[in-house]
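Figure caption, in words: inputs first, then the predicted bound structure.
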Amino acid sequence: MASLVIAIDGPAASGKGTLARKIAERLGFAYLDTGAIYRAAAHHLLRNMNSAPENEADAIAAAEYVRDNLDDNMTSNPELRAEDVAQATSKIAANQKVREILLDAQRKYAESPPDVNDAMAGGAILDGRDIGTVVCPKADVKLFVTASNEVRAKRRYDEQISKGVDVEYDAILADMIERDKRDRERSVAPLKPADDAFVIDTSNDTPKDVLARALDIIRGHLAEQVAKNAP
Ligand code: CDP
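Bound structure (cytidine-5'-diphosphate present):
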């Protein structure tokens, strides 16, 4: 049987990564943070190539570098979370060629997820901006996770402060709004809920509540699918 695929999309700091990780843990699924792949390309472009997102040829070369050298070390580098990397990421992520180069790895992951804890994964969870619309349009369950601008900015602010990074709330809010606007308005693979996505607003919920809601949706939806396909 083909493994299950759960697609989670949403704007910056909406809680999709936390949710995806918890669902993956609960269900024994493999988890791919696709934002980290785009961030790795922007990081390589800025820090190793000393270039800028406006240089299209370099942005494409950076995406190719990531495609050809992708590993866990690359995507777990804490420097990927720097704000200048985030902004450069959303700039290069608007480029169709960059997206095409990084698409295959994401689809392959969904089709044959790696083992989890030495056991075959029961499925894959991918989170990003276009998982339910472009990367895995046939995903078994699609969630679109969102929250108000202020709540999302506060979450990112708290996250950075807890890591000892000196940041201003207002600057975080402004940067986040700018990045979301770019992600929503780009012509290729814009951030938007798929028609068949379940939208979850996490503004007033704890991560535990959000997980419970998401698991209810996943169980309910899969039960419906099974019932529909029953002879
Ligand atoms: O953690 P946060 O939600 O702030 O960002 P992320 O998920 O790491 O994504 C960083 C940037 O990568 C986004 O602002 C998008 O521009 C881009 N991205 C994308 O275009 N498509 C994806 N599937 C994932 C990320």
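Strands lie at 4-9, 30-33, 123-128, 141-146, 198-201.
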